Amino acid sequence: MQNQAIQVKGLQKSYTKIHVLKGVDFEVEKGCIFALLGSNGAGKTTIIKILTTLLKQDSGTATINGFDVATKPDDVRQSISLTGQFAAVDEILTGRENLVMIARLRHLKNTRQVADNLLDRFGLTEAADRRVSTYSGGMRRRLDIAMSLVGKPQLIFLDEPTTGLDPEGRIEVWKTVKELANGGTTVFLTTQYLEEAEQLADQIAILHEGKIIANGTLAELKKLFPPAKVEYVEKQPTLEEIFLAIIGKKAEKAQ
Amino acid sequence: MNKHFFSDMGVMLGRSMRHIFRSLDTIITVTIMPIAFMLLFVYVFGGAIQTGTDNYVNYLLPGILLIAIASGIAYTAYRLFMDMQRGIFERFHSMPIARSIVLWGHVLTSLVSNAISVVVIILVALIMGFRSPAGVLSWLAVAGILALFTLALTWIAAIAGLSATSVDGAGAFSYPIIFLPFISSAFVPTRSMPPVVRAFAENQPVTSIVEAIRALLSNQPVGNELWVALAWCVGITLVAYLFAMKVYKKRV
């Protein structure tokens, strides 16, 4: 058994006109939450697509649980699950039908039971028999993540899981991600929200102009900057704190 | 090909069939529209059309079935396009299932759903007075031709669905195909048409397919038409399949 869930070395990828990845290297340990930070168009999605076997790199290697993504894509697909940037749910089916469909494609037994458990876990039991097109953004995202958990993959990829969600929805997703990691699943997520990485990640890498320019724990990254100065500043609540306090959800804000 | 190929394809079929049965729009277009055409041609225009047969429903039915299939495959392109747009394709492709399952699921759905609308239309035609002396073998041959025709158009639809950049574009290719039966012997004999139109009508695939089905259903000798019809269907299927696979490989 090796401890690395993901090993990426010298990854390069160009599209017709742009050189998106110019030699990306990083490793992700099993069981941790890894956040890949970067601005729009930095290449975060390209990395996810290569790691999930949807796209082939030009050069460099990437292995998932020891399997090379380019030469052993079938083995890679056995142990991963992808929640893409756009909710990968079937809008015309109900929440339960979506989960049963994935469970059947993963050739599980008791597909109905698997679906019911996940619906319960993600607070979707009441909405289970409604078509997904009637779901809110947060519910859709939750179902999306639930679908990725069918069959208990060891590694799950979340591409900008909270983009487009309201604060409540975002906190729901954060809670879910933390629970996942507590259960031993490795989580690879991309985000453009610094706060999200700060809240969730054990390890943070920053992708900028095609390369990883910083990589480490939050504490390690903080050391790269000048030491904190002590100043007395009156702490004003952020708008988010006000919003959450008013709607009474503050207590749920996950640790 | 892995051992779950067919059960996985069954899951995909179930998914798309649910899409069809939950979309009123699809049902109206693929069955009610052709039935409306049939009523219109038989009870409104039919009296003025000279086909040389005493039962115009018998004459008309093959053409109506082709129109139904042509409008049905527009939805195949649409469903494929929608899947490409949303994240669901990426989810399927990152799962441990054969990649081609997703495409074949749509193809199978197209065959099954068009078969259903063909049966419904034939039942309505029976109520309207359609009668056929054809035996089981002839009916099987008709089913085979219609399935091949569906398959040919489905692969054309796959090209459209995979390469379209908008929803409208995904469905637009089907209009000329829906129109083809009108410039064929489907509704009126070609001998009444001006020479240029007639030449086109007699040499396009729909005419030979219509004539072959008509001959089979009325127990007439089929002759060359059947082989011409089969050649068209198989030829279009092969070319469209190769092209669609090329587009598919490029997109995934």
Give structural attributes.
A: 255 residues, alpha/beta, six-stranded mixed β-sheet, 9 helices, 34% helix, B: 252 residues, 77% helix, elongated
Describe the structure.
- The complex is a heterodimer of chains A (255) and B (252).
- Chain A has nine helices and ten strands.
- Chain A is of the alpha/beta class.
- Chain A has a six-stranded mixed β-sheet, sandwiched between helices.
- In chain A, strand 9 and strand 10 (211-216) form a beta hairpin.
- In chain A, helix 3 crosses helix 4 and helix 5 (137-149) packs parallel to helix 6.
- Chain A is globular, with a radius of gyration of 19 Å.
- The two termini of chain A are 31 Å apart.
- Chain B is an all-alpha fold and 252 residues long.
- Chain B has one domain (2-251).
- Chain B is elongated and about 60 Å long.
- The model of chain B has no long low-confidence stretch (mean pLDDT 89).
- The A-B interface holds A 49, 52-54, 74, 77-78, 80-93, 97, 101-102, 104-107, 131, 144, 147-148 and B 4, 7-8, 11, 14-15, 18-19, 22-23, 86-88, 90-97, 252.
